[in-house]
Amino acid sequence: MCRWAAYRGQPIYLEELVTSPAHSLIEQSHCATRAKTATNADGFGIAWYGDRPEPGRFRDVLPAWSDCNLKSMARQIRSRLFLAHVRAATHGSTRRDNCHPFVCDTWSFMHNGQIDHFDRLRRSMESMLDDGHFNARVGTTDSELLFLLALQFGMRERPLAAMAEAIGFVEQLSINLTGSVKVRFTAAFSDGHTLYAVRYATDAYAPTLFAAPMGEGGHCLVSEPLNDDTDAWMEIPAGSAVTLSEKGIEVTRFQPSVDGAAVMKPALAS
Amino acid sequence: MCRWAAYRGQPIYLEELVTSPAHSLIEQSHCATRAKTATNADGFGIAWYGDRPEPGRFRDVLPAWSDCNLKSMARQIRSRLFLAHVRAATHGSTRRDNCHPFVCDTWSFMHNGQIDHFDRLRRSMESMLDDGHFNARVGTTDSELLFLLALQFGMRERPLAAMAEAIGFVEQLSINLTGSVKVRFTAAFSDGHTLYAVRYATDAYAPTLFAAPMGEGGHCLVSEPLNDDTDAWMEIPAGSAVTLSEKGIEVTRFQPSVDGAAVMKPALAS
Amino acid sequence: MCRWAAYRGQPIYLEELVTSPAHSLIEQSHCATRAKTATNADGFGIAWYGDRPEPGRFRDVLPAWSDCNLKSMARQIRSRLFLAHVRAATHGSTRRDNCHPFVCDTWSFMHNGQIDHFDRLRRSMESMLDDGHFNARVGTTDSELLFLLALQFGMRERPLAAMAEAIGFVEQLSINLTGSVKVRFTAAFSDGHTLYAVRYATDAYAPTLFAAPMGEGGHCLVSEPLNDDTDAWMEIPAGSAVTLSEKGIEVTRFQPSVDGAAVMKPALAS
Amino acid sequence: MCRWAAYRGQPIYLEELVTSPAHSLIEQSHCATRAKTATNADGFGIAWYGDRPEPGRFRDVLPAWSDCNLKSMARQIRSRLFLAHVRAATHGSTRRDNCHPFVCDTWSFMHNGQIDHFDRLRRSMESMLDDGHFNARVGTTDSELLFLLALQFGMRERPLAAMAEAIGFVEQLSINLTGSVKVRFTAAFSDGHTLYAVRYATDAYAPTLFAAPMGEGGHCLVSEPLNDDTDAWMEIPAGSAVTLSEKGIEVTRFQPSVDGAAVMKPALAS
User: Fold this and answer.
1) In terms of CB atoms within 10 Å, which of C57, C176, C242, D150 comes out highest?
2) Using the beta-carbon criterion (under 8 Å), do C119 and A135 form an inter-chain contact?
3) Which residues neighbour A264 within 8 Å (Cβ) at sequence distance 6 or greater?
4) What is the pTM of this model?
5) Structural domains counted in chain C
């Protein structure tokens, strides 16, 4: 399990989520209170959108609390939309390439959760990718592969629908190959304009997700509230998708789907 | 606060302390039970004695639990005397040069504890070192400086006496410069033949220290027992020094002393 | 291009290849004289065989010349058979998982060379691996994949024949998929008993390989001679395989082969 | 010897010095043409001024050419005044704390050069620092110590004069303690408003320094020209100081001075 925080709104310093709040993301890197593991010390990462279409990204393998670069950058960089993540490794070794957020052209993605039996599903998941997405894979995590799968399934045009198809595909695959399925998935992703998040699980333990207004018309999405002001934080229920755009915050229902066309045409067969 | 383990006896694989036991040192790096901090993820280090007079040393800044090199080395290397440490930083940033054990020619040293107001004492402590020991300092921790101070005070000839003088000097200095004193010090050190340890504090909270027989005639010293076999582990009382040599284990009283000659002749005045 | 050195014989300290000689492997990490690139600073690694069937391994991403751990280990560890490598990255980012030697159970492998158009061949190469070898892949280099391919093709039983088939398969694949082929391959590999090396290229530029006697009845194999004693070093001609075993050194002809059975039965079809 | 580049003017992306030019700073990290060492792979760092009085800073120990974070940041971050450095270590191990630029409150400093016999001068240099500057020292390089010495000598009020006094003090010290003196010093430093640089040596080998206009009314200062447009680059002669401010570029004479008052009142005596 990991912890993450994301923001969309008027530009703010990264530190307003990452280091300054009482229960900031760095605080959560060693004292998470709502996670299976209190310690999230297997690296960290930030993807932030500025003047360019693609995000900047900064990742490293040290615990977030001890990285001076992170503190300095969080204090200097302002962004209108960013994703920040601290990792507790489940699949994949501790190295930069396995740290979230993952980035593919203008898209960024980060994830808290896990896919049971990933080792037995990985190869079939990879076989769904076309050569472009296949070659974009540099790490070994289930998270990166879910991201690439969603991109393959059309995330650029239909973000939430493609994500629902990616999860649905993995669930079906798990049933087929292992006879059972357990997926926990609380993730955020963005194209640099809209910020999406999903909270979902096949069981009753979907990793937590909270939203709160921040700054002038902005919002943040977090694994755990950044402070004790319980009135400010809205818990997003399991089985939900959140969309943060110019229109504000929208919470809709999220459930995995199986899109026949996508699944029937594996990349390798084309 | 940190966690450490040390061994002297017939050669054993490092893993018998570091990775294999139920509550191994790596386990303690994320789930210490008797420490102020459960997480000791600010680096680790091992010093082991083999065929050469000086020890080998391997240190790194990742959490011990995620370092593949450590696992592989612990499984391959056998040693008759070694020190192993996982760090939770108090003074000094997370970098290799601040990871224990510290080594100076044939001597090695590692420490769990702290000196209050170290920032105000550091300069005067350093001024006691002669040029050789001063130039040997590469990090910024209180621990390394205590080690060099003990070497300066005669550790090579009178290990426990010199350590008692080093602690005594620091305590006197703290009273003089800050009007108060708090030192907690549970440390192990060795010349490659004899293994020494000390458990001491100016208050009632001396960091824990346990001893147990291991292998054929060998012993280990640890911050926390490596398993639940409570009969096997002897808690070393505060105010004690432990000496492991060919004669077996010896526990004696330890209290700081002020050796007039050493303190009167600061290095800079010579 | 990279630089490497390997040894088989009576146990010697790693430093006798890695740090001590006038033109040691560390020296070659910044001043290689017979390589396309003089600087080999994208990480390093050592695999050494001791008392266990599987090798120990130590890899890191810093330039070899600045890593204190490497120096200390090379000075302490003695081994009867070891492989040491400094990397100049061609394919794959700078991270531990991409540093040679690669290890799979008792086998180790390191490589200097390259496969042209690897990005277009990679996926088909991976598709030849059965699930066990596929899941053993953790990095993104062509070298690791060649190693796994050779293991898949029977390296454990027929080391040189399987390697010849792996190279032959890649060459055929390159012709099929890209219309051309360029492979340069100077590699060492071992099961902990016998040390094998190959020098081969599809063009006239097979990376150099030299052999010399070392210690009592031992031999070393290196990318570049470790000193100026030109009489001591035998250049291994391109298109050769070297076998170091209890019988001494044997140099035989090496050329890629296409073993019909292996190629006809891709793992995914089984 | 190291390589560096600095800029003052209208905000530009860091990449315009660091990664984009034909002979960018990253290019110089492996192929410097005017340095004693072609390879500058012992870490890198950037200090940039944005909306806050103190600079942001990003440093790491990998070769600059292989660090993905550096590439991404250089592409995203725009700054009106920044310093960038790639290191070839002379004094001090490879670790972040020894990477330039050094920062103290709003000031930043980076250096290419060396002080002969630094090991014998270091302690006396440190003894000139008051407690605040002494405690600000975290690394072991001569460069950081020169910076702190200049701050101690009044850099905040009289930047070039204080630097001249710091160099003068070190030269005098070297003559007194070692009977000889050799200092090579090409450095840049800034308070976030004005950018200063010095090219100086006690012998005929002052490390090179070039200046060129860049962007609208801006200038850059570099160890080596960033491209082959020889007309654009002005070589700054040895024994010079450069001041880049709102008034444009000013080159004046620089020679070390001994300010009696500063040298007579060592910090420890006060």
Assistant:
1) D150
2) yes
3) none
4) 0.91
5) 1
